[in-house]
Write a structure and sequence with these properties.
Blueprint (H helix, E strand, L loop, with lengths): L8 H10 L11 E5 L13 E5 L2 E8 L14 H18 L7 E9 L6 H11 L7 E7 L9 E9 L1
Parallel strand pairs: 4-5
Antiparallel strand pairs: 1-2, 3-6, 4-6
């Protein structure tokens, strides 16, 4: 008597899809963004992002160095933020992702000043133009690994 083959995750997903409980394409990531009542209305971010299933990509903190390792925009928060988001785009592309796939972003800003916020938000908003924004956290810090860096941004993305 032949031993039955153990079903793969795909086999199980297709079986569940036939029952109507999951999408037929089990690899398709479903992203749900929520801004629950009772929380302040967010400006440029989403309070809760839920993703099922998918491939999770963790992007280390990106800083304002170009591909040669040179600091871009020393002393200029806008230039540094622009370079950081360019680096983030390169990292996402390398992983087969795009800004649309980012579900969480964390900013670390040295000696954060209120007047820096519109500048940082402007660059961020251009990066996510036309998209629902990800969950987001901005943290003011006293220093980063190099005294020339003013901002570092890390991200989490999920792709199907």
């Amino acid at each position: 008597m032949k031993t039955p083959k153990k079903p793969t995750r795909r086999d199980v997903a297709l079986g569940l899809a036939a029952l109507g409980s999951v999408p037929a394409n089990a690899a398709e990531a479903a992203t749900k963004r929520l801004n629950p009542a009772g929380l302040l209305t967010p400006r440029g971010y989403t309070h809760v992002v839920s993703v099922t299933p998918g491939r999770t990509i963790y992007i280390s903190g990106q800083i304002s160095a170009n591909g040669k390792g040179e600091v871009v925009g020393k002393g200029d928060i806008k230039a540094q933020t622009t370079q950081v988001f360019e680096n983030l785009r390169v990292a996402l592309t390398a992983a087969g992702a795009s800004p649309r796939d980012v579900v969480k972003i964390t900013f670390f800003v040295v000696n954060l000043k209120t007047e820096d916020l519109p500048v940082i938000r402007g660059v961020r908003d251009a990066f996510f133009a036309g998209l629902e924004p990800p969950a987001s956290t901005l943290v003011g810090v006293t220093a980063l690994a190099s005294p020339d860096w003013m901002i570092e941004v890390e991200a989490i993305a999920v792709v199907a």
